[in-house]
Design a protein that fits this description.
By secondary structure, this protein is mainly α. It contains ten helices and no strands. It has helices spanning 13-36, 43-49, 54-60, 64-69, 73-82, 90-103, 107-122, 124-149, 156-173, 185-200.
Length: 205
């Protein structure tokens, strides 16, 4: 909860411009992937479509795989998590933040998420790179959890909680075997909340 006397920081012009460029790169990349396939699409083509240089592309995404894997879910989650009342346990705060974030997804957001998930499931290069993205997500969650708990991000308990949260989300969102075009994200979001409830309860079996 924000202090009444504290000014709410506003996103600056530079940050908004960066966000637009990042979104433009992803939008044009996904369009090109649909038209000519992932492997046949080059970074140069994506950059040209977004009217930026290849060097600008790499300032936003280290690799073409990262363009598919990196979205704003982590940012949304951490912002929502940091706004949860401190009376909640860490896992309860994660659950509340998760429900808030998933509830904010529009139909267009879900279409993009469905498409990037399909690419992650079917393109070997992206599946291989996904492990690095999971590690980055654990680090980001650990920073937020550590801040809330008053501990460093590399504290064993903090790191374990962060890994458990990401593990739960991975286990529901990324079923590596048996994935299909009929992937129901709304059902998955509900199951993530159920799985986090099990984690909050100590994983009873």
């Amino acid at each position: 909860m924000l202090d009444q006397g504290r000014a709410v920081p506003r996103t600056g012009l530079r940050e908004r411009k960066k966000a637009r460029t990042r979104a433009s790169l992803r939008e044009h990349a996904l369009r090109l992937f649909r038209l000519q396939g992932y492997q046949a699409t080059t970074v140069e083509q994506i950059a040209a479509a977004a009217e930026v240089s290849p060097s600008t592309f790499f300032r936003y995404f280290p690799t073409k795989e990262d363009l598919v894997l990196q979205d704003d879910m982590d940012v949304r989650m951490i912002e929502a998590f940091e706004q949860q009342p401190f009376g909640l346990s860490v896992i309860a705060a994660v659950r509340a933040a998760t429900r808030e974030v998933f509830g904010s997804y529009t139909a267009a957001d879900l279409d993009v998420l469905r498409e990037t998930t399909r690419l992650t499931m079917t393109v070997p290069e992206i599946r291989s790179r996904a492990l690095d993205e999971f590690a980055r997500s654990i680090g980001a969650i650990a920073e937020a959890v550590g801040k809330r708990a008053g501990r460093p991000a590399d504290d064993l308990a903090v790191r374990t909680v962060a890994g458990a949260v990401i593990g739960v989300i991975m286990s529901i969102m990324l079923p590596w075997e048996g994935w299909s075009e009929g992937y129901d994200f709304e059902d998955r979001f509900g199951r993530i909340d159920e799985a986090l409830a099990l984690l909050e309860a100590g994983l009873p079996l």
